[in-house]
Design goal:
about 200 residues, alpha+beta, Immunoglobulin-like, 2 domains, four-stranded mixed beta sheet, 3 helices, 9 strands
Length: about 200
């Protein structure tokens, strides 16, 4: 057999063996992905269910299956947490979901501490910052004071202003700015002394 005929024979045999092997590998890979996806789906359904003593072994199994079949790796601590707490695949009932856009992560009041006499007033400002350090507007910012009175005056350039007016009572009081939807709050201290 000359070298050209041998090469042609090897190519024919190689193609004849390669194509079925490639088809078998693709079929196996596709079936593996389907099985993995189904196992993830079953594990997630178990983990969204109730957390009680009778379900603990099943939840432990489901968290291990999710850890094993998930294309996204996670730690043993994450798996243990999934076994102990319900997996939430959507917003919690009764809570307004926080938008996925970058929102405020911190809230600050200024000044942090003031001393006033009875009937004097002080302006406070609250500023919310994002994780990137940008200012953010908070639509549900509320002001509370443990003594005297406080009222929002204006919002300008993403700064929230309020005026605290000292009452007749003397002592130490707290002024709080808070956002319920963003779960943020900060406080300032007011000392009121006699005239």
């Amino acid at each position: 057999m000359n070298s050209d005929k041998a090469r042609e024979w090897l190519q024919t045999v190689g193609v004849g063996l390669f194509i079925p092997a490639a088809v078998a590998w693709l079929a196996y890979s596709s079936a593996t992905r389907e099985v993995n996806a189904k196992m993830i789906e079953v594990a997630a359904q178990v983990l969204t269910g109730p957390v009680n003593d009778s379900m603990r072994p099943v939840r432990q199994w489901a968290s291990k299956m999710l850890q094993h079949y998930s294309p996204v790796p996670f730690t043993d601590t994450a798996a243990a947490t999934l076994a102990r707490y319900p997996l939430v695949l959507g917003p919690l009932p009764g809570l307004t979901p926080i938008p996925l856009t970058e929102g405020p992560t911190q809230l600050f009041i200024s000044p942090k501490s003031v001393t006033l006499r009875q009937s004097d007033w002080q302006d406070f400002v609250a500023i919310a910052l994002t994780a990137a350090g940008d200012t953010a507007l908070i639509s549900d910012l509320t002001w509370i004071a443990s003594g005297g009175s406080i009222a929002e005056t204006t919002t300008s350039r993403r700064r929230h202003y309020a005026r605290f007016t000292a009452g007749a009572a003397t002592g130490d009081f707290v002024v709080v700015a808070r956002s319920k939807s963003w779960r943020l709050a900060d406080s300032a201290f007011v000392h009121i002394q006699t005239r």
